[in-house]
Amino acid sequence: MSARIKVLVIDDSALMRKLLTELLTRDPQIDVVGAAPDPFVARDKIKAMNPDVLTLDVEMPRMDGLTFLENLMRLRPMPVVMVSSLTERGAETTLQALELGAVDFVTKPKIDLEAGLREYADELVAKIKAAAKARVRGSVGAPVAPAHAPVRRSLLRTTEKIIAIGASTGGTEAIKQVLEDMPADAPAIVIAQHIPAAFSGPFAQRMNRSSAMSVREARDGEQIVPGHVYIAPGDWHLRLARDGARYVCRLDQSAPENRHRPSVDLLFKSVAQQAGANAVGAILTGMGEDGARGLLAMREAGARCIVQDEASSVVWGMPGVAFKLGAAEQALDIALIADRLLALCSGERAAA
């Protein structure tokens, strides 16, 4: 049997420290080795206990979570799961934490709801286990572009080509890198990223600030046009539909697929049906297998499909399952994904 995952809980609330400890210790593969009320105590406990994973509250006294995280990733990079509040401010701070190197986040539970608590415990445990296996890059060891860096190109506008992207754990930063590498006139992009409802709006705004393309949360019935990126709102499925010759967004709150809403599989299957060979698909880093079968459906419908490779993924779950299913023709470093998507939209042949 493999060694148990050692977790240090960092939270200024005694109630949250107690709650997180109780939820995590129920799992036989996890050992909560300690709890700290602030980053200064945490620093000493990290040295003494050498934990595998930290849970870190965003807002704490003496030193805020972001400052502590930035210092940690510079001096001693290790897997961190943020514990965030479901507010717009909490969402923006959490997205900054992911940019600084946190692996994932969970939102604070509604501790008065027993059913909600059980669901929260399952999510928390799964994310701790994924974080323990994740690839963490500190600020010093940030990923470097490959020797043959992609050359950005401008595309002639084509209303028929469409790019579909799915991601989960680590996906907010992976998506950011892809969108930063896209020209303003790139084909339209539809994205399903596993993210809570309160977080998808700030995430879309953050992406819009860093991309030459126009990025927004998708709205039901809106026309999909080149140069624009449409991100599925949290807790809503995004599907591709047709209105005559045009692509449009369709949103609904039907049952979760693969335990997720938005579901990458549902988006990809709709792209397979509506766009077929006019689509290009990609799965980026993420835990689980959502999107793998949808990407296979896209490829079987004639779409060109790729995944992020294991070395550059935070968690090679979703892209790994898709690659093993034969849903993708290539697995590429994240720094090469945008260029390859553009090349496939231009009709480049499959790699040998």
UniProtKB/TrEMBL annotation:
PROSITE patterns: CHEB, RESPONSE_REGULATORY. Residues 6-123 form the Response regulatory domain. One of its GO terms (biological process) is chemotaxis. GO terms for molecular function: phosphorelay response regulator activity; protein-glutamate methylesterase activity; protein-glutamine glutaminase activity. Its EC number is 3.1.1.61, 3.5.1.44. The modification 4-aspartylphosphate is found at residue 57. GO terms for cellular component: cytoplasm. Its main location: cytoplasm. Phosphorylated by CheA. Phosphorylation of the N-terminal regulatory domain activates the methylesterase activity. The keyword Protein transport does not apply. It is found in: Cytoplasm. This is Protein-glutamate methylesterase/protein-glutamine glutaminase. It is an enzyme of class 3 (hydrolase). Contains a C-terminal catalytic domain, and an N-terminal region which modulates catalytic activity. It catalyses: L-glutaminyl-[protein] + H2O = L-glutamyl-[protein] + NH4(+); [protein]-L-glutamate 5-O-methyl ester + H2O = L-glutamyl-[protein] + methanol + H(+).
